[in-house]
Inverse folding.
């Protein structure tokens, strides 16, 4: 049995709690506190200094718990992240679960952390490296316990991404508002951009798993598709289970999550499952051909896929979603660094955006990630943009993007030729390009060739973003 102590970083503004935990853990056989953080400014240094394998994330005054966990999961996927939530923060739980973060309730007991460490020690792979904890055994309800880890690698800082990568999710909490149309056009817009003389490598992903239509809207076959990738993941998982002498039919969902945490896919794998749009070079990971196949795609498949995409060579990954709040959609929202929230200037679409914004605000989702886009705007609308802004309670500095209603759109959907590649006049084309430039401001500054239009000043990034980008 491995008795090595796991390095634990404690993050919380409550110095009394931290000092009590440190005292109680001083004699621990399983955990060694390697640092403590009371302000987000100190976090990066503490991670670099302490090289933690486990981080307990509590409350800080200057940053939201969910955002902090999300940033740690994004930049340090090999660190096991445990969120310690107060009652006030318990609304974070479903979101944290989707990030692969454990959740425990406050007051935190040293024994809880110890039990987690024991669990970690039990789950070693053959190289003796730690895996993530798996089933919720800790009295408190544990959140998603799965996620990718860098197997065979000690808890060192993850390599910085070698080039800028953009993860954008297009979402709208109502059907038929133009999500797929916008996803397609934005994906084509980015595919046409060049940076340093090189075309951007762009992937459009259809996360509308059962009824997605991205492939159709581009005249592409749905073969191969996302389900083929899922089948391959399952084959690998089944092999792992069999190697342990177990019967795959007896493995529970939670255990599949555990096995999937040990599975590491190569970022190049994705290319086997994409179809290429010949006119633009855009890669598309389409939804399954058969609706029934979508029922077999589980949360852990999606998580592995998203994590693998994050490591892939694509410059821009654009995810189209369904108008729902299923696992696929929520994971796509949390995976994204930018979200385009699409609606129409119709009362039901407006109401649903407002409800979704309310939910995300209550969950402290970083609103600066969200761009709201009202699609199909006609010359004369019942609601003015000012009224819509007021209803959404948008900050005065926040842009509300609009795309005009354009008869060309229907034709381009029917022909499978994107608006941005079609000839002829179109009112919507420039509006889409403007939205694209706002999503990746650096493009407007750096690209050699771009769709005509005015460039924008890059938006001020959040301090945490800067912190982790250092
Ligand atoms: N700017 C526009 N002008 C005119 N028609 C549009 C515009 N945007 C979208 N449409 C039309 O609206 C229809 C629905 O668009 P789309 O399929 O993109 O919606 P969606 O939000 O993806 O739907 P779902 O929720 O079913 O996935 C399309 O057939 C398209 O022709
Ligand atoms: Mg759609």
């Amino acid at each position: 049995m491995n008795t090595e102590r796991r390095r634990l970083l404690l993050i919380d503004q409550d110095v009394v709690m931290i000092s009590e935990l440190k005292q109680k853990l001083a004699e621990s056989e399983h955990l060694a506190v390697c640092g403590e953080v009371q302000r987000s400014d100190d976090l990066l240094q503490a991670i670099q200094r302490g090289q933690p394998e486990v981080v307990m994330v509590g409350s800080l005054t200057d940053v939201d718990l969910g955002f902090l966990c999300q940033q740690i999961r994004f930049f340090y996927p090999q660190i096991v992240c445990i969120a310690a939530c107060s009652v006030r923060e318990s609304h974070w739980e479903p979101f944290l679960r989707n990030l692969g973060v454990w959740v425990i309730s406050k007051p935190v007991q040293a024994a809880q952390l110890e039990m987690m460490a024991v669990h970690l020690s039990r789950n070693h792979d053959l190289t003796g490296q730690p895996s993530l904890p798996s089933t919720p055994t800790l009295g408190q309800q544990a959140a998603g316990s799965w996620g990718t880890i860098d197997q065979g690698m000690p808890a060192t800082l993850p390599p910085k991404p070698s080039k800028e990568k953009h993860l954008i999710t297009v979402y709208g909490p109502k059907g038929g508002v133009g999500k797929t149309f916008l996803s397609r056009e934005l994906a084509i817009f980015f595919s046409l951009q060049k940076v340093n003389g090189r075309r951007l490598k762009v992937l459009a992903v259809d996360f509308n798993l059962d009824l997605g239509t991205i492939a159709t809207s581009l005249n592409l076959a749905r073969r191969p598709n996302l389900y083929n990738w899922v089948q391959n993941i399952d084959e690998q998982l089944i092999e792992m289970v069999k190697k342990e002498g177990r019967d795959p039919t007896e493995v529970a969902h939670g255990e599949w999550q555990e096995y999937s945490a040990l599975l590491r896919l190569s970022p190049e794998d994705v290319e086997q499952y994409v179809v290429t749009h010949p006119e633009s070079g855009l890669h598309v990971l389409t939804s399954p051909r058969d609706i029934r196949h979508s029922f077999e795609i589980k949360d852990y498949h999606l998580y592995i896929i998203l994590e693998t995409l994050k490591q892939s060579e694509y410059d821009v990954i654009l995810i189209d979603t369904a108008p729902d709040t299923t696992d696929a959609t929520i994971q796509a929202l949390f995976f994204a660094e930018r979200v385009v929230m699409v609606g129409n200037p119709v009362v039901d679409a407006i109401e649903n955006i407002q409800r979704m914004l309310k939910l995300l605000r209550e969950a402290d989702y970083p609103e600066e990630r969200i761009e709201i886009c009202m699609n199909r705007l006609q010359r004369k609308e019942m609601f003015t943009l000012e009224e819509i802004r007021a209803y959404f309670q948008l900050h005065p500095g926040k842009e509300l993007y609009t795309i005009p209603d354009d008869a060309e759109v229907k034709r381009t959907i029917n022909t499978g030729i994107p608006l941005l590649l079609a000839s002829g006049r179109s009112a919507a084309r420039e509006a889409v390009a403007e939205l694209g430039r706002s999503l990746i401001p650096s493009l407007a500054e750096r690209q050699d060739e771009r769709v005509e239009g005015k460039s924008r000043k890059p938006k001020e990034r959040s301090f945490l973003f800067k912190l982790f980008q250092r």
